[in-house]
Amino acid sequence: MLHRRMLLAVAGIAALIAPWEAAAQKTIKVGYPMILSGPGALFGEPALKGAQMYVDEINAAGGVLGRKFELIPRDTKGNADEAVRVSRELILKDNVDFLVGTLTSAEGPAVSTIAKENKIVFIAPIPKTDQLTAKANLHPYVFRSASNTTIEGRTAAEIVAKWGLKKIATISPDYAYGQDVTKAFVEHLKKIKPDTEIVDQQWPKLGEADYTPFINAQMAKKPDAVFSSLWGGHFLTFAKQAKPLGYFDAVKYNFIGAGEAASIESARTMGADYPVGIWGNSYDVNNWPGGPPAHKTYIDKLRTYTKQENPSSWPVTGYVAMQFLAEAIKKAGSTDSDKVAKALTGLSIDTPIGKQTLREKDHQANRGQFWGKTVNDPKLGHATMQEVLYIDPAPFMD
Amino acid sequence: MEPSFLFGQFLGGLTAAMFLFLIASGLSLIFGVLRVLNFAHGSFYMLGAYLAFQFVQWVGPRTEGFWLAALGAACGIAVLGGLVERLLLRHLYGREELYQLLFTYALVLILGDVAKITWGTGQLSVSRPPSLEGSLNLLGVIVPHYNLFIILLGPTIALIFWFVLQRTSVGRIVRAAAQDREMLSSLGANVGMVYTGMFMVGSFLAGLGGALVTPTQSIVPGMDVAIIVEAFIVVVIGGLGSFWGTFLGALIFGQVLSFGILIFPRFSIFAVSALMAVILIVRPWGLLGRPLR
Prior knowledge:
A: Rossmann fold, Rossmann fold, 13 helices, about 40% helix, B: about 75% helix, about 5% strand, globular
């Protein structure tokens, strides 16, 4: 009997609370699948931080449509299957209204299919594979505020073309990202500078521990310049082995590293071992002399938010993605995914890195990256970009 | 192809080989005496690298303190190895080999998490010591001093071990322990001590390999699993438990990898694995190993 009475009481209380709860629950829930453990967490954590900072900012200003944002992060462990699993859970259990997130080029397309199935808007802030928004995979709910391999490879080609060098070599990890970005680089360079000669292409496996044979073999082909897409710890290992072998001297530092080789993270970790003088790119820089005032404001806020004088270059990825979502909800006047998806298509917004547009054609942002030649910064105690170049990729996107 | 290029490729392969020998010799030594296939050997290597990083932070980066840090890291791993053998592994000697294998595999997972919790998931880096920062020109090939040091260190360690194992009384006992542990213990030798000692020496080599590799690689989670696979290939080629076999296996591994990329640019690792497969079929006990009874 006691059981039954207790049940009744609980049901009664629940009935009383329910409408109340519904009112309090009117937050806009955003699921954020991201790598939060394992090697990729080095980038996933700050990417989450950027999104969180934007959410805190907009909530402090009253939210959107009078509702506050609630960010629900989930660890994908850098695994596409796990990303799919947590995304499903976010949709079914946590009842999120939108998905923003994923980091690798395996996770992005996998979660995109979940978004399509559930008719939920999904914005990818980091995955670069062209496949994500290629014709065969595009659907009304997927958007990418990240750069992509076509943009990254072609931008590098635009820079290298200006060097006026003929014999070009490449070294890239042998998997989807490395292959795609290298292909984009080579094809675009040959198009804008037809006398280009690709003298050597090295494909070490992803996670190679000993690059020496590849370095020697490449040096033997005597290239004038090199394009690389070794990223993170891979670039670090490569550069530490290449520098004492005289590799960078041999190409006279005509070396351009895609895959964020000039990011604050890489420069800081390597310290004096950094091959200063090479070119590289980064998602963000903490000092952008020619940049818009909005960027300076953003970096100042980020410094306060992270309590770091020289914060990571990754928060901007999450920040801009959340910004797109909030602006689209505002424009749609609704949190209905169909309406928000319509609002996102072709949407232009002002971000810390300038005007960004999600193209109608393929839902891809004209997201460029920062590129520059590196110099030693005695104040920081490590390498940094000398002249920061933000190249708008719009003119050479397909 | 220029001869200087081929020479450079050879030296690159040699450096890689000597690193591998440092690590694989410990694995082979432990197996030779204790008959335990220690999966966690790669974890000891990784922890050696992390410890070296930590010690270098304390003694000051880019100083000769690097040597102290490397030695300290190797000793730290030796102590860790001793504790693991004494407190844990010892209870599994009577059991089936599968239990030992499972136990050392569990160690891989535990130590991997310990490293992540302690040093995070980011990439860490250690610089070369100033004394070996430069390079020299050897027959038209630029050879970093540090690589030269590694190339010389490998054979030195091999010779020390050969001498100790073949020419000293300690070596005699170790060899006897490898041959027949019951007989040795009935003769009054403390086999338990021999086992702990050998496990510590093997762990020391793993830790030293990890510490010395830090100036040429980034320290990242996952380097434990990558190295254990390569070390296994080396000992399988050379012969499990055979000391000179490990040396030969490492030399072959390094050169096949180095020259393999000239023939199969994208499949150099395939060449090494194929070699291992062939050896397993033709001579399952390895090039210099002896068939297990």
